[in-house]
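Methods — Computational structure assignment.
A single polypeptide chain was analysed. Its primary sequence is given first, followed by the predicted tertiary structure written as structure tokens.
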Amino acid sequence: MGDKSERAQKLRGITVQSLKAPKKAGNLTKRGGRKANWRKRYMVLHEGKLYYFKNQKAKMPKGAIELEPTSRCGETAVKKKFAFQISTTKRVFFMFAPDDAEKKKWMEAINQSIEELKGPGEGGDDKPEETKKPEETKKPEETKEPKDDDESKPDEPKPKDDETKPDAKKIEGANTPRERLTSAKDVIPFLRKQDSKVVEFWQIWSESFPPTDGRAAGAAIEFEVSSSLSMEKLKWRTCGPQNMFIQRMVDFFFDVGASESEIDRLNNIGALIEPSKIGSWIEMSDKQGMDGGWYFPVDMPIDKAIQAADAGEAVDKVKEWIDKHKIDTCYSVGRDMGAMPPRQTSMKINLPGPFAQQMETAVDAFQMFGFPMIPEDALNALKASNPSSISMSIITCSEGFVQIGILAPAPSAETVNKLCEITGVPRRSELDTFEQVLGGGSGPAYCEYQHLMKSFGYGVYKEGFDVILHYKA
């Protein structure tokens, strides 16, 4: 409260009229941080600060974006027409203009203000761009910005380039699931790059999490991360009580370009299944792959889960397989919310019977669905790991089967090392750090023996066989 009062005190007495000779002023629609909604604001760019007011007659600003020499203003991955972003050491701000001409004028004016803040040696007029020394920039984690209706918690600082190693002290101090998630992101080499659309996508997703304050007792928020052995493909998930998640999820999907028909489908499937928990996920790769969607991580009748999928031959085959093996339920269903079809629907299914019967059921799925079987060495490693049980993941779309996987719980370090050897992927030191950050070195919760069908990698995801490690944060 003290920070907020102090901040309000500094803004008190500032009006649109008191900001004489602004560099630019006018209406923009700005995305809030804490509530993640979009609100029209009257903006005034004045002496290195972008003030935002409820309207031109407001008695004081709602807040101000303090520009810095290291700030950047440019294009954004947010799927809003005429949108752009301002990146500071505190957070990334998203907004959109009424038209393209205004967008260009605002970006030009903001970037001019940033240039004017740069002194000698920081890329200003006195010296060329190459003389910047980003390593001398004050570390952003040392500053805190109070919050108001439009503000959120400061972003984690971005490493300066992809060669920068993650901060060991920061990793050791990651105690909450959210902190562990952010520290895990900073371990991934391709997520330490500046000006990365993938990093920006991750940031937009992370801002959709429900706030920790004001949460009802027992209303837990869960986080999971999965990574390929090569750490070139990752999937991030968060879930919790439906009433906490639904609006923020929908806002996130609209921000990244989901269609209204897919939002309607989410609502319809939710009404059918009535899940106690819902969540969102994003997937990404080092080749700039980016996808996102929703999931319901609850037990449900499989005939209801299948209704989330697009009709077609693949769904008919799944129905034939579950009837053959008397499978009645699944424990998760989800769907991607990409801007363009075909959209993919995933199901996770516990297999009935003892391990030997489960393996027979899984092998039959590979054969019935037209997937090549898991390589023999990997299959032997799975059997040798002697899992208590296995489950399956199946992804379909209107064009056919997309992906299949066998999930085995709690793989040992020996099993993971054996799979690295089988797949020809050297075990990376980053994987050990990744595990340490997420679970204190307790290892993956699951190991998935996965096959992505040819033509569904779209040039950004590895097709064919792969091994995926699943962790709980």
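Note: Confidence is low (pLDDT under 50) at residues 125-149, 151-163.
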